[in-house]
Write a structure and sequence with these properties.
The protein is built from ten helices and no strands. With 155 residues, the chain is mainly α. The chain folds into two domains: 97 residues, Fumarate Reductase Iron-sulfur Protein, Chain B, domain 2 (Orthogonal Bundle); 45 residues, no CATH class. Helix 4 packs across helix 7. The longest helix has 15 residues. Bound molecules: iron/sulfur cluster (2 copies). The site of one iron/sulfur cluster has 15 residues, from helix 2 and helix 4.
Length: 155
């Protein structure tokens, strides 16, 4: 039986190398230490940081940055960052992949909406008069006004 050929997409790997946090994917030696401490891997069978790194090494662009990519199940807990003996910083590679998704327009719609809200108002969810009223009832201080212009400049 003829074996299936795997062609590494170096073009995508080069692209990933240029995104902050992405270039450490080159150092992964597939030991799985990151998987052992990953809460997302424990609760979602289809999520596995080692497999994400393997796909990055193979340059599997569509799998990693297409619509419905599994990378969005990562909880950003940084356990893998602490565990990895190779200093791959899997979470940072995943964030780099997420940034590529945003550029391509394949990030989940709800997250795109949240980040657009932050860009416009400084908060992910609008602070309505009802929110302020409930805060007052709970004895919480008024929310500080966000310097939106400064924020826009930073973004
Ligand atoms: S990212 Fe690090 S811990 Fe995970 S498989 Fe690769 S070398 Fe091992
Ligand atoms: S940051 Fe993401 S990939 Fe890393 S251990 Fe946490 S959930 Fe898993």
């Amino acid at each position: 039986m003829e074996k299936e050929k795997i062609i590494v997409n170096f073009h995508f790997r080069e692209k990933l190398n240029k995104v902050p946090g992405g270039k450490h994917h080159n150092y992964c030696y597939q030991c799985s230490a990151c998987v052992a401490s990953c809460p997302a891997a424990r609760f979602a069978k289809k999520f596995n940081p080692r497999v994400i790194l393997l796909k990055a090494l193979l340059g599997m662009e569509e799998d990693l940055t297409g619509k419905d990519s599994v990378i969005w199940l990562c909880t950003n807990c940084y356990s893998c960052y602490e565990r990895c003996p190779q200093d791959v910083r899997p979470i940072e590679v995943i964030i780099a992949l997420k940034n590529i998704c945003v550029e391509k327009g394949t990030a989940p719609d709800n997250l795109t909406k949240l980040s657009e809200n932050i860009g416009k108002t400084g908060v992910s969810v609008a602070v309505t008069s009802a929110v302020n009223r409930i805060r007052q009832e709970l004895g919480l201080p008024e929310l500080k006004k966000i310097p939106v212009d400064e924020l826009k400049e930073i973004i």
